[in-house]
Amino acid sequence: MHATRKLWTWLAVICALSFGVLLWVGSEIYLSAPPIPQQVVSKDGKVLYTREQIKQGQEAWLAAGGQQLGTVWGHGSYLAPDWSADWLHREALALLDVRAQQQYQLPFAKLDTAKQAALQAVLKQEMRANTYDAASETLQVSAERSEAMAQVAAHYSGLFGSDDKLDKLREQYAMQKGSVPDASDLQALTGFFFWSAWSATTDRPGVDGVSYTSNWPHEPLTGNTPTAATGIWSVASVILLIAAIAAMVLRHAAAKEEDDPEPPKADPLFSLKPTPSMRATRKYFYVVIGLILAQIGMGVITAHYAVEGQSFFGIPLADVLPFTISRTIHTQFAVLWIATAWLATGLYIAPAISGYEPPLQKLGVNLLFYALLFIVVGSTATGWLGTLQHKGSEFSFWLGNQGLEFTSMGRVWQILLFVGLLFWVTLLGRGLMPALRRPSESRGLIAMVFLAAMCIGAFYATSLTWGRHTHYALIEYWRWWLVHLWVEGFFEVFATAVIALLFTRLGLIRAATANTAIIAETIVFLFGGILGTLHHLYFTGTPTFVIAIGGMFSALEVVPLSLVGLEAWKNYQRSRSARWVQTYRWPVLCFIAVGFWNTVGAGLLGFSINTPIALYYMQGLNMTAAHGHAALFGVYGMLGIGLMLFCLRGLSSRMAWSDGWLAAMFWLMNIGLAMMVFMSLVPAGVYQAAASISKGMWFARSPEVVHSPFMESLVWLRVPGDVVFALGAVCLAIFALRLLTGGRKPQTSDALAGQATKTGV
């Protein structure tokens, strides 16, 4: 008990210090973020943009699809360009042409090498010079640059407007004509894109050769190349990773782990009778399966838009379901179904653990279900309507699609979801409270489950921290609090503690051992994970020290994954420790798959892009998508399915349980995911990375690369993996329907369970 108290103390200290540093970083981002000028003026005194227009342009872009329609500073979708990189390259080329015509009466491309080099040197000097005057809050540009900016602005006005000449380009970007129908919004949009590109290439005050985004994106024309800090901290993070893994392996080898206990003779949960509130959770899991199927369908449509930008096998589907909507639903439903599975698991296990059914608990579980269903349907419908009918930025922010990846629902829906999560924590606490008060070896595990649940509820409040006019750098800071800490942090702690608790209840691991192990694992995970959030923020207008902190701590995030394969092997051995355990074979195998994808998706693919130098060239490319698919479904999705199956085991007739359908589901989904990632997304990411390194980020995201025969062939190579994966989901749905209908005959594992219970095997 003394050792456990020390671990709890260490956990509290690490969390307090880490969040203190993270909040301090936020204050520094607020103070040193790229300034938004009161006016952008040319030397002849013409006002090009105002601060209000730049902010309005940010809102117009988010309302038009935002991070579902290309990226800014590398965050968003991968089909349309990164608008900051694209503007920067187009402006540089336009300015070279303006000066070439001015000095030599020829286009830049027709000049000899010496004249081109001279103009490029002047270009680099002009683009990097910081002409923002803090006293007057005015940014002044040359008359020639003003002319170049006007040419680029005309291109974007036509692209986001209705210029028929750009129809082909819009199709390649999977954009709709008239994405920004309001003329004032169109002008403001170009101001926001200009500001994002200016921030990316002009030097920080007092620092030569380092822009506000630490020289991201790679653009040789303007001298945007990796900074020294980017390279140094990448090397340092790799050294730290190797040293930390070596230390963990040595520590594990030196530690004497207690053997697992002798498993019980029969299933301890075989005679568990679900309470009314436990039975009420079953409908949650059927909604989870429905959301999985819908998410897969939207994923297929979204991927196909990379070939046909405005149609689906010739059907003009984009007229009613454009790319921005299908991708929003695809990403949003992924988070929603995984979260719903975990929330329902918490509501199911609380009475099972405590042996207590609080008054009106079933009513609360039902109310929460219909509230969550209302939020899912309502936010999806209003997001769809707002985007399709161009209802403007105010509607998008409050009710529609905010245009932010993984947290796109309007503010009203976010508030309702926050209230719903707090209600869930209350229901969970009511169910767990007797077990928390009762002294037992499992109390520490139960406390970890409840604390993680409280953090899940409380930390969703970070989705309410930004407003319509918040600086884009701060929006990204708070968004990653939500996406990284909420989804990748406390949900994982919650799920890991629940799995340990389930194994303890089955008698497969000792409660005291699990107690200590979970606290220790949480310490190791959060020590790297909290400040590892900053690896998402290297190049989003943050101070340069973010690269150092984020690079080092994101390396530590990978360290606990070095032994995750060993834990998966132990779980496999536990699944074979007694004949009755075979009844839980597929939930346990889902947990084992989590270990595999943690190593491959979160570890291997995650660290391949997390070092500053790697992310400098690959941020916003398909390597990010490869990591995202492997980690989000492989880790969190398989966790959700495993927990769901464990709960359904106790909620359904064992005569209806079909291991055959579950076996098909498990292998098809995991093999399909591997095919999707390694046959399509990884090769596409490597191909784009080569383009980014050789010519620049603008080129890696250009139609020349994205719609090259090689890249489009890789899109088609997703089809086999997508089909295999989708068939696995269909098998899961059929399995669930059999549970409703009662099935036809008992399966092998059910017979074994009954035999084990009767004979005491």
Automatic annotation (TrEMBL):
InterPro entries (UniProt xref): Cyt_c_oxase-like_su1_sf (IPR036927), Cyt_C_Oxase_1 (IPR000883), NorB_cytochrome_c-like (IPR054309)
Residues spanning the membrane: 7-26, 231-250, 284-307, 334-355, 367-386, 412-433, 445-466, 478-504, 516-539, 545-566, 586-609, 629-648, 660-682, 723-740
UniProtKB keywords: Membrane, Transmembrane, Transmembrane helix
Pfam family, one: NorB_cytochrome_c-like
Organism placement in taxonomy: Bacteria, Pseudomonadati, Pseudomonadota, Betaproteobacteria, Burkholderiales
UniProt-recorded name of the protein: Nitric-oxide reductase large subunit
Keyword Transmembrane: yes
Ranges for domain Nitric oxide reductase subunit B cytochrome c-like: 37-218
Keyword ATP-binding: no
Gene3D superfamilies, A to Z: Cytochrome c oxidase-like, subunit I domain
